[in-house]
Amino acid sequence: CPSSPKHASSPSEKCGVLNVTRITENGKKLRKNWASTWTVLQGSSLLFAKGQGTGTSWKFGVGQSKPEFSVDLRGGSVEWASKDKSSKKHVIELKTRQGTELLIQSENDGVINDWYRALCETVNTHAWE
Ligand code: I3S
């Protein structure tokens, strides 16, 4: 990430539908499985729920018990994925401190650029405590 201003109070809340696949979990390589995934950035956590379609009215806690999986971004890294990670356009590679790596992608470059900014701000703001 390029360094971004550290505003202690910056609200890092964002949600939307992205294409997501995990590629590594706890240091172990996984087979890619791209899925359209409802994604919520909440504080230093990134929460995912598959199979929610593209409806944006759905929220965690409203008729849904919990996200399918989540990652803690504290101490993690965010970067644009290199060509060898995926043939898709606009792919962000996220690495967590716990050894999970995932790719998130959107066909819409405005959408993915907003996510890139928000995720960078999150990792820059929430240093590992
Ligand atoms: O990095 P890879 O292995 O080329 O990733 C592709 C595969 O996961 C492929 O599925 P199969 O497991 O059936 O081969 C996916 O359909 C592709 O989308 C993956 O590549 P991209 O470049 O789209 O991330």
Model description:
- This protein has 129 residues and is mainly beta.
- 13% of the residues lie in helices and 36% in strands.
- The chain contains 1 helix and 8 strands, in the order E-E-E-E-E-E-E-E-H.
- The protein has one helix spanning 109-125, and strands at 13-25, 28-29, 35-42, 45-50, 69-72, 77-80, 91-95, 101-105.
- Strands 1, 2, 3, 4, 5, 6, 7 and 8 form an 8-stranded antiparallel beta sheet that branches.
- A hairpin with a 5-residue loop joins strand 7 (91-95) and strand 8 (101-105).
- The longest helix is centred in the C-terminal third of the chain and has 17 residues, at 109-125.
- This is Rho GTPase activating protein 12.
- Residues 22-124 form the PH domain.
SSE topology:
Blueprint: E1 13-25, E2 28-29, E3 35-42, E4 45-50, E5 69-72, E6 77-80, E7 91-95, E8 101-105, H1 109-125
Antiparallel strand pairs: 1-2, 1-3, 1-8, 3-4, 4-5, 6-7, 7-8
The chain binds (1S,3S,4S)-1,3,4-triphospho-MYO-inositol (I3S).
Residues 31-32, 34, 86-88 line the site of (1S,3S,4S)-1,3,4-triphospho-MYO-inositol.
